[in-house]
Amino acid sequence: MEAARSLGMTKGMAMRLIIIPQAFTRMLPALGNEFIALLKDSSLTAVIATPELNYAAMNVAKNTFERYPPYLTEAAVYLVLTLFLSRVVVRGLEKKYSPK
Question: CA-CA-CA-CA torsion for 93, 40, 76, 47, nearest 10 degrees?
Answer without folding.
Answer: -140
